[in-house]
Amino acid sequence: MRKHWNPIVLIHRTNTRPPLPFPCPDFNQLFHPSTCILIKNLDHMNQDITVPPPSNSVHKPKLRPTLNSYFNKPTLFKAFFFCFLPFLISLFLIAHLNQSGKNSEMVLLAGFCNDSDIANVDSSESKSVPFQETRTGHACSTMGEPCISCTTFNILAPIYKRLDQQNQSVRESDFRAFWLARNKKIVNWLLYERSSIICLQEFWVGNEELVHMYEESLGAAGYDTLKLARTNNRGDGLLTAIHKEYFKVLNLRELFFNDFGDRVAQLLHVQSVAPFSINQNESVQQEIIIVNTHLLFPHDSSLSIVRLHQVYQILQYLETYQRENKLSQIPVILCGDWNGSKRGHVYKFLRSQGFVSSYDIAHEYTDSDADAHKWVSHRNHMGNICGVDFIWLRNPHKSQKLLKISWAEAAFGIIKYQLKKVSLAENDAFAFLRADSSGNHITYSAFCDALRQVNLTGLSHGLSFQETKDLWVQADADGNGVVDYEEFKRIWDATWLQHMDEDCSLEDSNEGIVEDEAIGFAVKKAVLFPHEVEKGIWPENYSLSDHARLTAVFSPVRLRCLKQSL
Predict the structure, then answer these.
(1) How high is the pLDDT of residue 517?
(2) 148-404+514-562, which class in CATH?
């Protein structure tokens, strides 16, 4: 009697089938065009499964299928067991791990995860990462230890971004689609990182649409935004954003340098929303001073004195504000584009005032020339690369020189640099400053004339009369009205970073009488994006800005100052 076959399932491979993203044993055999799989109805699965033999072949007896027979044949069961079932299990595990990660408080900084395609910016930052509302932010808790994060980023104003090197007048600001797309990517990254403090430079304050986009996006994410335009309608300025979950703004001061570069600075006095623990029985809502600024670009070496003077004004204002408000016990964070490297006068000036570079502390770099070019953060319009973006930290009670003394040393450093630039050695420099003086000394009038010859006075951006007078007072150590060779040599050989003993340390300090306690910060981590710049390389396909983005993470530490017994 002829055997009746139940309906069959015919599976075959077509040219349009996409490749599978995971391995599958014998999958090609399973989907070979000549392969047919005949499956009987489910209600007869206990019966025989046979394939009609060719007409010229010898008929073989029917065999009852066993579990082993299913694994020895290219069947759908085999495909499901070896391919699809593990795939479904892996999806379940990934979903479970992701959910666990969202609930974890062990994440110190979301942007520091190992998956550069998700959280970090690598050289292929042409694709923006969408903002994820589930991101926990950088102000987090790690093993019960709170931390805050700070990001500084010169976002390159479209009015300055050159699109054609052959035609410098073609700027991105003329093409709305270009600057809007780039700045949307920048906003997405800022929202993704969700730092406690965001300091932006070259913010295009002159474009209402761009300003609205930043303020609306950051505001919806919980930030207070404060902007400040440069003077004389330069078009760009500063934007500082403070996350309201972590800080509230107590005071805002705007600094206008009113100088050659029309530069400005923002000083924010903020207080933590959540208290920081001082000890087991006491906690305080920590106050911090934050400064955001962008110093003048040194188109000429004589402009170095302008940048130095801008920093001097910031520190003078900071000193006055802390004294008037009795805030000597709080840390200070300076952020921005300083337009000078670690070998420059501004860097050394700030170091002499007790500030440390958070990135260099995190990576254990020193102030030596050997570590001066380990990293870069900017490629300027001339194609030169250098590290100019810093997040400076000064803790309470940090030893520092008197501001006026540090300023004089920094100014003398620039004078020395200008003299060496024209190949004047020590003896020749003394003779140049002495000019036509009859004695073996430098007079005040000769000193002023020499400064004018090296373009440090007599210009709108040079040293003022009072500043020149103050320098002379520092040079004339014995006050006899002239500077002899020994006094000159003391200036010429002066070292910037003389050792200064710490007068404040961590809680577990050695012997001594506790004079005072304060909350400071320890640098936990600092990262530059894109990652190539951390190795001193500027990636050619990085297009978000001509600056790298710098983010630092700080954790509070309890400090105490020691006063030795007499």
Answers:
(1) 77
(2) alpha beta
